[in-house]
Amino acid sequence: MNKEAYYTMLESKFLMYRDYSSIPVMDNGDPLVPIGPEFEGKVTNYEEMEPYTGDSIYVRASVVDMLISARAALKSTFPDYDLEVIDGYRHPDVQEKAYYDYKAELKAENPDLEGDELTEAAHRFVAVPEVAGHPTGGAVDVLLITTDGEVMNLGPEDDNSKDHYVHSPFIEKDVWHRRQILRHCMLQAGFAPTDSEWWHFSYGDREWAKYYNQPAALFEQIRFCHTNKNGCSEISDGR
């Protein structure tokens, strides 16, 4: 089986936009909070979110506790490794821009893609806004780093490479092994993984609900802004 055929086989196993769209949401009121020093890992905010959240990454409060548990699980076996969170809550406007920009790029590269096929292809790399987990505060993007803060190699630098698929057999053995280490500690803490992006994990969103066969997602999307940059009004309670 050639590389493209193998990736097509992997894609047939992925959860898709249509798998999430019918899942109901019953928000449990868990507050949106910044990841603080209690995490003890590294936190580096997504550049596009700085006008909304400054230097902080916000997530639901329960997600902070889960990140602490995931880090403890990692350190118990690999004391020289650590976690770096590079994305958490993402404002819906940021999610929409990322999705539609990538969808347009994908269409330009693949003119024959259209309709549901185009939507699902785009969703593998940037979630359809209405079901995306980052705007709920329940999804995080996480890297493995050394205790010196050096990012460990878990895949190619090309953001849209299919070599980012967690179970790709076309990556180096040590890279594949590190992905499984990251996935194991995050699953141990209760997060749901995303097979198309080794760095993406979530709790409480539609993806988590589908992965763990829950009757509903726990977190609805939030239009939150902590700063007043770029005309963004401050909202003190996260709603």
Q: How far apart lie the N and C ends?
A: 50 Å
User: Approximately what portion of the residues adopt beta-strand conformation?
Assistant: 5-15%
Strand count, sense and closure of the main sheet?
Answer: 5 strands, mixed
pLDDT averaged over residues:
90
Please trace the helix and strand order, writing H or E for each element: HHEEHEHEHHEHEEH
Assembly of the depicted chains? single chain
- Flag low-confidence runs: 233-239
Helix content: 25-40%
Q: Write down the overall geometry.
A: globular
DSSP strand count: 7
Contiguous helical run count: 8
Strand order, largest beta sheet = 2-4-5-7-6
Which structural class do you get from the secondary structure elements?
alpha+beta
Rg, nearest Å? 17 Å
Summarize this entry quickly.
The chain has eight helices and seven strands. With 239 residues, it is α+β, with helices and mostly antiparallel strands. The strands form two sheets. The protein has a five-stranded mixed β-sheet with strand order 2-4-5-7-6.
Detailed description of the structure:
The chain is globular. With 239 residues, the protein is α+β, with helices and mostly antiparallel strands. The strands form 2 sheets. A 5-stranded mixed sheet has the order 2-4-5-7-6. Strands 1-3 form a two-stranded antiparallel sheet.
